[in-house]
Amino acid sequence: MPEQSPPPDTYSLNSQLQSSQLQALVEQIRAGSPRALARAITSVENRNSDSAALLKALFPYTGKALVVGLTGAPGSGKSTLVDQLAREYRKQGKTVGIIAVDPTSPYTGGAILGDRIRMQAHHADPGIYIRSMATRGSLGGLARTTADVASVLDAAGRDILLIETVGVGQDEVDIVRLADVTIVILVPGMGDDVQTIKAGIMEIADVFVINKSDREGAERVEREIRAMQALAVRHDDWVPPIVKTIASEGIGIGELAEAINRYVGYLAESGAGDRKKEQNWRGRLVEMLRDSLLERVVLDHVGEDAIAGYASDVAQHKRDPYSLVEQIVADFSSNSTSTVEK
Amino acid sequence: MPEQSPPPDTYSLNSQLQSSQLQALVEQIRAGSPRALARAITSVENRNSDSAALLKALFPYTGKALVVGLTGAPGSGKSTLVDQLAREYRKQGKTVGIIAVDPTSPYTGGAILGDRIRMQAHHADPGIYIRSMATRGSLGGLARTTADVASVLDAAGRDILLIETVGVGQDEVDIVRLADVTIVILVPGMGDDVQTIKAGIMEIADVFVINKSDREGAERVEREIRAMQALAVRHDDWVPPIVKTIASEGIGIGELAEAINRYVGYLAESGAGDRKKEQNWRGRLVEMLRDSLLERVVLDHVGEDAIAGYASDVAQHKRDPYSLVEQIVADFSSNSTSTVEK
User: Fold this and answer.
1) pTM value?
2) More confident call, A46 vs B139
3) What is the set of domains in chain A, with CATH numbers?
4) B191 close contact with A: CB closer than 8 A
5) Which of A105, A147, B131, B250 falls between 20 and 30 A from B65, CA-CA?
6) Distance CA A249, CA B279 (A)
7) In this structure, what is the dihedral angle of CA atoms A127, A107, B146, A303, given to the nearest 10 degrees?
8) Measuring CA to CA, which residue among B163, B167, B164, B176 is closest to residue B195?
């Protein structure tokens, strides 16, 4: 990092932070400063030039939070359930971070407004931190950004991270794969609701929730889940429990926290938790490599202008894109074997 | 390509094709052989070792098809509309390829069954070729695979390619971006249907369809689209028309084909078509680079086993993932400047 005169009493997160400033920011995040936390998350979301150094500096303090992923179709009462679950954990004296990811939401402004309304519902309890994410960077996936934001909250000492997503696309499956515990929320009477949630998410559910369970058809949803479980092949011997809730009335929330707790106990005893963390990191490393390689090649090695020129050539059929990509990759590669210690 | 003895009278698409075999396959695809087409598409979908050579060989014959992307929420009557539109183009003597992409569909088997039912509806007209895609490879995105399958159908001489997707995730936005013409399908009475479709898709609509337009609320949907258009900023001066259809009765289909035709005329006259193709290719090149780089690094340079080992180290906090990724990328890079002719 180049030596430069630091701006007094402030972090400029758009330029390179000095080591000492970085360390100060890390300390403030760990001390729970909401301002430092908000700045760090914004830096990570925008993947600005400081974010890599910041994530590196925070890494030693991560790995302690329990990450719970919750997914369900629009209208399944996901946010209400997440808020109630956060309240339950607060009663147990635990601090909570909520990351609400909704790539289908058309209005980022709406997401921010939603945050404020939800924050008010928690009476500005500093033990609950809520962040909504509706966008993704041009070079990085939403899953990676969510993972990085979760790392910041983890390093900030949040005991429980609740990540909620609409379970509709590949992004959401990737996001849910970051979690230690995955919860799939279904509701009765939404017709083919079991089918409208992406299959991959149904398969990785560790706990099922039937929310709005006072509605007609709750038993049918339960039977459908059981039927699906009979067909599904899990890589461990955990049988995902089905918890019935009415989130709007706070019914079944204690039971849900209990079911999560039982699964966490199972993860620890069986060793499945370590395997899950390894698998999650495998996915994250691959995603980080993908982004990092692309960034190096497109921005530094070839240049955006050259890419635009190539695109024009290909569009005019002056050049075949397959040979072009092969050549760029070959040029970039040193053909050396990896020197990274194994 | 290494010299090897060719298997008699057959292409083995799991091993490297000889030049002569590849040329034969290309000729059969161009001659419209359904068997050759099916094999080529399967090869491209699975991204097996021959697919790159095949796509390269087919590239000179691509760029002639009109690619129409159609997107709408589940229940919007998308498939029926696409089938009717295909029928309309057949009446005009044009050949059609349909690619149905539904990443939310839990059952690939269901997709294949759906293909058969839809094929029967077209009385086995060889002028309509239907392929459903519900999965994606581990290293490649669904958007890229869809683009490659579209290239095969394009090289096979299909005049019109209809690509239908459920407009819910980023994958679908990327898929729609491949198209020359983008059609967004809405239906009355689905409540917040305008909002449940991803914002990015609304913005790139070139033609709006209000399907099931005999239902109550069609005028409200139209007003909502008009209100949204007043806010949206297009990069050209095209005002997307709104076409009302009742696809199940074949009503409004001719008008839709006509609206598409007008937009195609506009693209040609204004030069916007060339810019669109360049933009599409820019996105495709970046995606191809991303996949290709990752494949080279993960499979050839580092190796899957080493990645698994690193993931284990990171999960145990023995190693920080950010420095690790930086080092792998630096190792892989030759630091040379690009030699690709600009």
Assistant:
1) 0.76
2) A46
3) 1-61 (no CATH), 62-270 (3.40.50.300), 280-332 (no CATH)
4) no
5) B250
6) 50
7) -80
8) B167
